[in-house]
Amino acid sequence: MSKSVLLILVLAILVSSLVTACCPPPFECTDAIGCVDIPPGEPIKLGVIQALSGGVAPGGIIQARTIELAVTQRDMQLLGHPIVLQKENEYCSSEGGATAALKIAADPQTVGIIGTSCSGAAVPAAQIMSEAGLVMVSGLNTAPSLTSIGGTRGANWQPGYFRTIYNGMQMAHAAAQFAFYELGIAKVATIDDGDAYTHELASEFNRVFIELGGEVTLSARVNRGDTNMKPVLAAVAASEAELIYLPLFQSEADHIVRQAQDVTGLQDVTLLGGETLGSEQFIESVGVYGIGMYFTSTAFPTGDAYGKLVSDYEARYGEQPQHHAYAYAYDAANLLLNAIETIAEQETDGTLHIGRSALREALYTMTDFEGVTGRLACDEFGDCGSVGLVVLCLDDPSGGLDGLRSNVVYTYTPER
Amino acid sequence: MMNRREAVSLRWRDLGITAKFSVAFGTLLTLIVLIAIASVVALTFVRRETETAIVTSTQIQHLVLEMDRGLEKARRLEKDFFLRYPTIGYAEAYQAYAQPADKEIAHVRALNTELQQLVAESDVSDTWKENDINLNLYFSAAGRHATTVEEAADLVARLAADETGQQTQLARNSSLLRDVLQSADDPDLLILFAEMQAFEKDYLLTRRRPLMQSAFNAAVPLREAIESAPTLSTDQKTQALAYLDGYLKAGEEIVELDVAIRGKFNEFDLQAEAVDPITQDLIELAEDEVDRASARIRQTNRLVVALLAVIALAGLGLTGVVAKALNNSVTRNIVRLTQVAGALQAGDLQVRAHIDSGDELGQLATSFNTMATRLDALVGNLERQVTERTAALQTEKERAQQYLDIAGAMFVALDRQGNITLINKRGLALLGYREEELVGRNWFETCLPAWLRGQVRGVFEQLMAGEVELVEYYENPVLTKDGDERIVAWHNAVLRDAAGGIFGTLSSGEDITERKRVEEIVQQLAKFPGENPSPVLRVTQDGTVVYANQAASPLLDVWGCQDGQLLPDEWRRFAAGVLDSDSNAEREATIGNRTLSLTFAPVVEANYVNVYGLDITKRVRAEAIRAQAEQALKEYSEHLEDMVEERTRELREAQGELILKERLATLGQLAGGVGHELRNPLGVISNAVYYLNMVLPDADETTQEYLDILSLEVRNADKIVTDLLDFARTQVPDKRKVQASALVNQALERLPLPEDVELITDTPADLPAVFADPGHVEMVLGNLIANACQAMPEGGKLTIEARLEGDQVALSVADTGCGISPENMTKLFEPLFTTKAKGIGLGLAISKSLVEANGGSIGAESEEGRGSTFTVCLPIEGGVR
Lengths: 416, 881
Description:
The structure holds two protein chains of two kinds. Chain A is an alpha/beta fold.
């Protein structure tokens, strides 16, 4: 071998040694279900699935706005990367949820989803999300089957699904106990619309009410979009129920409340509505027909953080939120962003690596998250919310949502 | 000292031409090879680039379009599935539509995967690679779509499967429950049941849940009534309650299934909303990709063209240099030598070539100059000798010419080639030329007609070769300068030299053109009477035949004389008489079965008679036939008018019947075709109404009203289609023995009359039975009764009678309605004729067709304002028909 060749070889070895010594080894993803690698300057992508049109849209739009607010408060950035929100409409339906989830899951760079509004939409969306390796945090789904029922996995549970609002089972308990103990009702009828939220709440209410010693005289159902409620109300009247539990969305509940007065035998019946009816629009719509109606609801958050959220919301959107559940969406967004911040690995050039399984694990083990709705801790089924529940009574529709909120007639503290 | 350039120049000058060409063409060949190599390389590059770009782009476009088509087809199949299962049954619809839709979606997904791989592996634009998200969504949406189709099909199966579907269960329980309730003989139970069922039917029509809830509500008092019904046994109550429970359960299931199916419809719509823009984007991207490939091809082409242009220009420059060198050292010297040779040829014997080169051209120039010097000396001597000889010959020639010009005939001398060497003035006058125009020119080409040249020239050449003897005299035409032909009589002599060799000819000629023409006219005139096909004779005063043409031979045979002999006495006297009278006379003569008319024309001054015969046999016969025909025609024309009139009437009747039959047959085919074609779309419209009712359970009242109108009109249209098909169908009667009264009663039972129509029947029971298809006759009577009722909107009397008429039973249906106008009476039984606002005018046509198929007949009488009577005659059993 000539001297010149030998010299070149030595130089090559020296250069490669220097390169190896000064630069870290390339990132190797060891996450069980993969990583999202985000190069410098590229965004962190999050999906937002909410009901943006239809009867439930007011609630969904408020949720979406609140999520946007949470991101804005972080200057639309996380770990030096811009945050991009992909908003999709779920139409508060199973098919809408499925289609929205498919759109979001098609992008392999998407890290997680904040949503949905309706539990019915969440059932297929959670499945699609889970199969794609994402996480999903909802601030409004309450159907028990999405997480757990009585300490066991719900039928629609999916790995990676979380919620910051309460499990509907707790609300059913609160409603049943209020009816049985506080109102002294012995016979009840329930009306649902087949959606996971309404159906599961009605079923759980029936189960608990019977356990308490009451009688469920009728479990009726209406279709989404029905306007003629007199036949179902006639059936209720025939069943001689003293109270009708209505875990329905606004449109159908509106017709029921208005038409109940015209059905013989229902003039004195008591109406008990669910969380979604606690909105300015519903109160305005039913007007005097709603006087005396009860509403189950979460206890209202307090504290400086919540106060700041309210003022920020008003400052950004020029109005107060028309529904009080938006705070759970705010917590859902921050819960997810914090978890990403916790587990993301960042290289010196800014490249970000987010382990999908690690992100899920971070959320499942989250035990001390200070949200505006309280201190959140997620259990193994994805339930992270821990709030008190109340029952409100509408005495004066002219007082609006604030008037309703101020008229708490029953308080329930759920067990965890 | 000589520089390098001068040394090269000197070296080049001393090279031979072969070496110079070798160097020049070697350089050019090298250049061509270089250009060829560059072209091959460039073309290979272009081809590879082009092929890759085009193939990839085309594949992408093809895949995207196929995906789009596949998805569209799948959607169409799904829609057909939901539209058609109510009519063709779930199982068949599933097999015909749902399964193919599923396969189509699987195919679309496979194409999507293929497209993703193609995009990943090929050199497509970044835009495509960024569209990976859309491709992912397309793939997952297609998968979801397939799942949704399966789920929807399953829901439909649960709803509508033939035996197990909830709709079947609902209908079955409803039917069984009704049967039990009917056995109770309790109207209240049936009313409650009917109320419940009415709500159910309304639900099935509108798919609005509150209606089914109303049915459930109605079931509560029904249940109580069943439980307390005194007319039902305990077992019957148990049965009825079980059926009611089954009914309610099926009802609840149906409602839930409808909701779920609607959800699937919504999902299809949402999926389409999500995927359709992607498809459009992909198609546009694929088109962009093709455009991009085209742009790359154009760019590469421009590059290659520029490269080739540079190479070609370089080659052109080098070629110029080589050409310049060859021009200086070779071409220019050749040109110079050529110019010198040309000058020498032109007579410049002083010219010389000056070439300063050591090659072959330099040596050639030296040799050329030497030859030119010697040639100059030789030519000077030769020219002098020629001048002297020429002058002597010219003098001799002018003397000979003077002798010939004096002669009266034309003279012409030819050399061995046939060229004119001499011609005298007579010859020039005949031919119309001046001497200088002819001397030296070829005789045969100039002065003989074209048709004669070859022949005469051949003889001339043979003469010059000594092969034939001279023809001293002959006549032939010559061609003048004006193109006229003149006939000349020639006397010829051969010109020989001192050694006896032939060196030409000398001929004297005389123009005999006019003489020849006169001779020919005389000969032609002499033949004229002989060529006449009719007899021509000339007879002298004493009756001697002095001329008879060939056609006169049979006549002379009959007369028993010959040319030069006397005519028979009778004819001789006749000829003499004609000559005396000096006027023409005609007379007929018979030769066998021929008749001749002979005209005797006297020529008094010559004292003879010319006889001209004409064969008039045909004319004589034709006149006889015409006379017979005129007689026959006269007799026949007396009966002709009657026959024509009768035949015309028969033809009109037959034509009318034929037109009617053809019209009916065509109408029948048309009706059948239209009926079948309309039935399918009507079925689809009916299903679509059902489908709309299902997916629009909350339709507003106006929409629902329109849907109900659609249902009603579809039923009406179906009735029309049934009529059309009845009309088109071949009516094969199933004849049997049946009483007329029974037929009338059956028809009346099936068609309740309006309250304001009074019915009078007279159908004696003792009438013999008719032999006909009862179904056909009932339909006919039904049509007639319905028409009668419609003719009496304000009420009236309907009279139906039956009576015996010969071997037939006549059934008449009479009304007291508005009657039929006389102009309409003739069209009553024609298809598509109607005077009613509704109906298509097939009822009476069908009736007529049915009656005739049963061997009967139908007729009508009417008086406007008084009413109409339609009578159907049918054969009795054992009748002739």
